[in-house]
């Protein structure tokens, strides 16, 4: 059984789970386990790892339209170097500071492979589901797409400074809360834009029609993409960008005070996920 | 740097951390990472692993005198066998059911070694610290001591059924809440009774005088202990029993309605941790 199938089985077994985070009694709880081999390429600093691990969980809370209250992280490593642990904590603290959450510590575990499990707790009385999109609405994405793909390319060519910089994303907690009153469906783009659209389409029983030209492709992608196909690959399929993908009535955003850039990338339709008229494959990052 | 030193450094770096769980805005959050090599001996079922991992975090919440609201767990393993994942979820669900918490899912991660990171969120407006014990009070422990040591012996001799049964402890969430109004200091015994007493003594700037004969040694220990010294080793030093160790004025427990057995094992003194007049070593389980 692959992870996606197993996660589906887990969701069936656990009623309150599903969407980006679980909600129980007004609390939003989400957890993510990341490890060196697949999540932290050579060159990733412990500061960036702390930022990114906790940021991934903050992004899940953001996707529910919730505030972020507290974060913890369990840190598993073969050795506990004081500078490394401190750098990790600094990164976790700094990403929390961007969102209003408090980083309140965690656990250490002696572990062969560097492994981090982060958990964030938030609050909302009115979580935004994945299932509320309707034909006639518009579909939007926050920020830019493709930073993580560009980061991997930077690490591969030995530019660790740019790799780390691109890896440290800003979780969209403020935007998620601002959008919650008007967003009809929302999730984060951690599996990539294409897969996110398919997941929203399935949950909402709708379709999407987007335009390639509208995607807010990050400037770092323009620098490294070898051609137009590669550019699309990095922006729509690579995943792990942790932007919000959401739907809303076309004029609804006029009433929202947002400090985060938001781009309308297309429309909600009755069925089918297409880009410029062609079917958009349901593939992306498999966690 | 060993884990204990690193945890101390972490606690210094993160203001809200410390004690058994962090408290922020009335929320109690705790996380624990466990893995096969040190926490799940051969013979441990996935059902027991789910129970025990989530139970360890529930115990931390219990030690704060808080209720337990929600639990999540990240499950890392080389493969995702449907029966194993389901058994793990069943164990996590069942231990939550004992405490009123809801198990609301988690994350799956492809991982060379079976690894679990569990997080529990609870609520309290008045957490019980480790620092409130005063000379003249009594010191107590819930339940019995030594089950985990006896479980390891059972696994070693191939009696997996008894090992698993002893490994599935009942987190003392109900007792922790009932005791919260009268307990002056409290923690769980996951590092072993001896180390727990030293930690309470340090936090409260007090001492303890306990009697070996008063310890509520589990009947499973009586079955496997080779002599009196071994019996003390399993009951007071082995650790991972997840009982509550707490202090209270001697008559205060009369007003508490408890379904959990509680044993008075000695008294709070001005300084020094002694058992029957001899210094009690500060050693135990190092996570």
From TrEMBL, chains A, B:
<feature type="binding site">
    <location>
        <position position="130"/>
    </location>
    <ligand>
        <name>ATP</name>
    </ligand>
</feature>
<dbReference type="InterPro" id="IPR036921">
    <property type="entry name" value="PurM-like_N_sf"/>
</dbReference>
<keyword id="KW-0067">ATP-binding</keyword>
<dbReference type="Pfam" id="PF00586">
    <property type="entry name" value="AIRS"/>
</dbReference>
<dbReference type="InterPro" id="IPR006283">
    <property type="entry name" value="ThiL-like"/>
</dbReference>
<dbReference type="Pfam" id="PF02769">
    <property type="entry name" value="AIRS_C"/>
</dbReference>
<keyword id="KW-0479">Metal-binding</keyword>
<keyword id="KW-0547">Nucleotide-binding</keyword>
<comment type="pathway">
    <text>Cofactor biosynthesis; thiamine diphosphate biosynthesis; thiamine diphosphate from thiamine phosphate: step 1/1.</text>
</comment>
<keyword id="KW-0460">Magnesium</keyword>
<feature type="binding site">
    <location>
        <begin position="106"/>
        <end position="107"/>
    </location>
    <ligand>
        <name>ATP</name>
    </ligand>
</feature>
<feature type="binding site">
    <location>
        <position position="60"/>
    </location>
    <ligand>
        <name>Mg(2+) 2</name>
    </ligand>
</feature>
<dbReference type="GO" id="GO:0000287">
    <property type="term" value="F:magnesium ion binding"/>
</dbReference>
<feature type="binding site">
    <location>
        <position position="20"/>
    </location>
    <ligand>
        <name>Mg(2+) 3</name>
    </ligand>
</feature>
<dbReference type="GO" id="GO:0009229">
    <property type="term" value="P:thiamine diphosphate biosynthetic process"/>
</dbReference>
<feature type="binding site">
    <location>
        <position position="60"/>
    </location>
    <ligand>
        <name>Mg(2+) 4</name>
    </ligand>
</feature>
<dbReference type="InterPro" id="IPR016188">
    <property type="entry name" value="PurM-like_N"/>
</dbReference>
<feature type="binding site">
    <location>
        <position position="107"/>
    </location>
    <ligand>
        <name>Mg(2+) 1</name>
    </ligand>
</feature>
<dbReference type="InterPro" id="IPR036676">
    <property type="entry name" value="PurM-like_C_sf"/>
</dbReference>
<feature type="binding site">
    <location>
        <position position="240"/>
    </location>
    <ligand>
        <name>substrate</name>
    </ligand>
</feature>
<feature type="binding site">
    <location>
        <position position="190"/>
    </location>
    <ligand>
        <name>ATP</name>
    </ligand>
</feature>
<keyword id="KW-0808">Transferase</keyword>
<comment type="function">
    <text>Catalyzes the ATP-dependent phosphorylation of thiamine-monophosphate (TMP) to form thiamine-pyrophosphate (TPP), the active form of vitamin B1.</text>
</comment>
<feature type="binding site">
    <location>
        <position position="191"/>
    </location>
    <ligand>
        <name>Mg(2+) 5</name>
    </ligand>
</feature>
<keyword id="KW-0418">Kinase</keyword>
<dbReference type="InterPro" id="IPR010918">
    <property type="entry name" value="PurM-like_C_dom"/>
</dbReference>
<feature type="binding site">
    <location>
        <position position="32"/>
    </location>
    <ligand>
        <name>Mg(2+) 2</name>
    </ligand>
</feature>
<keyword id="KW-0784">Thiamine biosynthesis</keyword>
<feature type="binding site">
    <location>
        <position position="285"/>
    </location>
    <ligand>
        <name>substrate</name>
    </ligand>
</feature>
<feature type="domain" description="PurM-like C-terminal">
    <location>
        <begin position="135"/>
        <end position="272"/>
    </location>
</feature>
<feature type="binding site">
    <location>
        <position position="39"/>
    </location>
    <ligand>
        <name>substrate</name>
    </ligand>
</feature>
<feature type="binding site">
    <location>
        <position position="20"/>
    </location>
    <ligand>
        <name>Mg(2+) 4</name>
    </ligand>
</feature>
<dbReference type="GO" id="GO:0009030">
    <property type="term" value="F:thiamine-phosphate kinase activity"/>
</dbReference>
<feature type="binding site">
    <location>
        <position position="31"/>
    </location>
    <ligand>
        <name>Mg(2+) 1</name>
    </ligand>
</feature>
<feature type="domain" description="PurM-like N-terminal">
    <location>
        <begin position="18"/>
        <end position="123"/>
    </location>
</feature>
<comment type="similarity">
    <text>Belongs to the thiamine-monophosphate kinase family.</text>
</comment>
<dbReference type="GO" id="GO:0005524">
    <property type="term" value="F:ATP binding"/>
</dbReference>
<feature type="binding site">
    <location>
        <position position="30"/>
    </location>
    <ligand>
        <name>Mg(2+) 4</name>
    </ligand>
</feature>
<protein>
    <recommendedName>
        <fullName>Thiamine-monophosphate kinase</fullName>
        <ecNumber>2.7.4.16</ecNumber>
    </recommendedName>
</protein>
<feature type="binding site">
    <location>
        <position position="60"/>
    </location>
    <ligand>
        <name>Mg(2+) 3</name>
    </ligand>
</feature>
<dbReference type="GO" id="GO:0009228">
    <property type="term" value="P:thiamine biosynthetic process"/>
</dbReference>
<feature type="binding site">
    <location>
        <position position="188"/>
    </location>
    <ligand>
        <name>Mg(2+) 3</name>
    </ligand>
</feature>
């Amino acid at each position: 059984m692959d992870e996606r199938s197993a996660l589906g089985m887990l969701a069936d077994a656990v009623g309150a789970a599903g969407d980006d985070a679980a909600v129980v009694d007004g609390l939003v709880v989400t957890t993510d386990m990341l490890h060196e081999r697949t999540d932290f390429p050579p060159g990733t600093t412990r500061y960036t790892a702390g930022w990114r691990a906790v940021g991934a969980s903050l992004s899940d809370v953001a996707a529910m339209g919730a505030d972020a209250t507290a974060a913890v992280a369990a840190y598993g490593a073969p050795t506990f170097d004081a500078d490394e642990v401190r750098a990790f904590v600094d990164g976790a603290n700094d990403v929390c500071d961007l969102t209003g959450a408090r980083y309140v510590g965690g656990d250490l575990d002696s572990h062969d492979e560097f492994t981090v499990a982060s958990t964030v707790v938030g609050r909302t009385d009115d979580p935004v589901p994945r299932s509320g999109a309707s034909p006639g609405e518009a579909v939007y994405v926050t920020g830019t797409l493709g930073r993580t793909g560009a980061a991997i390319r930077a690490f591969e060519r030995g530019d660790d400074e740019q790799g780390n910089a691109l890896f440290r994303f800003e979780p969209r907690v403020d935007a998620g809360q601002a959008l919650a009153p008007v967003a009809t469906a929302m999730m984060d783009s951690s599996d990539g834009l294409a897969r996110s659209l398919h997941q929203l389409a399935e949950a909402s029983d709708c379709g999407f029609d987007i335009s390639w030209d509208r995607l807010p492709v990050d400037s770092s992608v323009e620098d490294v993409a070898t051609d137009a196909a590669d550019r699309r690959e990095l922006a729509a399929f690579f995943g792990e960008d942790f932007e919000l993908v959401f739907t809303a009535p076309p004029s609804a955003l006029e009433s929202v005070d947002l400090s985060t850039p938001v781009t309308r990338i297309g429309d909600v339709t009755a069925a089918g996920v297409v880009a410029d008229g062609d079917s958009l494959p349901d593939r992306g990052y498999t966690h």
